[in-house]
Design a protein that fits this description.
43% of the residues are buried. The chain has two domains: 5-183 and 352-368, Glycogen Phosphorylase B (Rossmann fold, 3-Layer(aba) Sandwich), CATH 3.40.50; 187-350, Glycogen Phosphorylase B (Rossmann fold). 39% of the residues lie in helices and 17% in strands. The N and C termini lie close together (11 Å). By secondary structure, the protein is α/β, with parallel strands linked by helices.
Length: 369
Amino acid sequence: MSKFNILHLCSYFGGSSLYDEYFKSLFSAGARFDVVFIRKGFRFFNNKYNKNTANYSFYELSFMPNKIGFFPFMKSVLSYLILRLNRFDLDSYSVVHAHTTFSDGGVAYLINKLHGTPYIITVRNTDLNLYLAKMKRSHWFAKKIINNSSHVIFISPSYKETCRKDFSNIFPDDIKYSVLPNGISEFWFRNSRIKEKIKNNILFVGNETRNKNLEGVIRALDSDMSLCSDVTLSVVGLSEKQYKGFVSSRVFVSFLGRVDDKEKLLDLYSESTCLVVPSFKETFGLVYAEALSTGTPVIYSQNQGFDGWFLDSDIGASVNPEDIISIRNGIRHVIKSSYSPDHLKTCAERFRWSVVTKDVLGIYKKIHG
């Protein structure tokens, strides 16, 4: 692996800590690589710097107008020019990994055409649910990006199925496709402990955005008198003041606000009957894997990022986030069912970064030859 160098294009690096964990895992496995994060801003020259990650080389570049995301091809050309003006030796890389299809994949496509470097694409939430679903004028560019790539990675089986079904003209065959999940912090595996569950205490971990669908959970509980009287809903990630949705006097909701202490969050997962987060759109959903690692079953969204990794009967229930009855039935089913905490923890092992890293290094090696 040390014989070749990888360029990671990661336009969402600043939005999630999972990328830093992923890159540290790659570094620990012996990979050589640089990470480039091109963000919005207006410094054009001399704006390359090496962030002190202590594990890998990280470069943050900027000159991205706010609205340029609506024009993927123009954004890709501008990003490529930024790399060249900052004197990146693009001929020195053996493989490029674009961590989104449009924001990063377009740049990888141009590098391939101008320098001959093979590239890998990862398909994420914004690629599928924004660019592909709502920006059909960009489909011509998506087709070029996908068809010229050496490999395409989907974050979940459901994303692969949706792309193959709804955008078959862009994703034409199965030869170069893999399904690899995101990983979760090693903290959850090192500190995992099985605790006695608090009966009928369900947990929501998210934020105040409509997408996380806390309102759907509250409406689902409100629609069933037996659930109202038996279930307590604990909400992590927002305060009662931040919540602007439907309020039920029949549902007891405990708003815990933002919880940054992982030990406290670990206890909340471990003590809960189940985790329920029926998001409308979800690339993966780290909270589901975190909950499983503590032996807690999960209720998650059909046809979104976590769906398809396991049979529902093994880990909880998948629900239609648009359907209150579906959410209600999912909650009722899970709290009445029995799950083996040890089995759930075993399922979570699939989401160790060391496992994900081993798989992706195999792809890099195969492409490099």
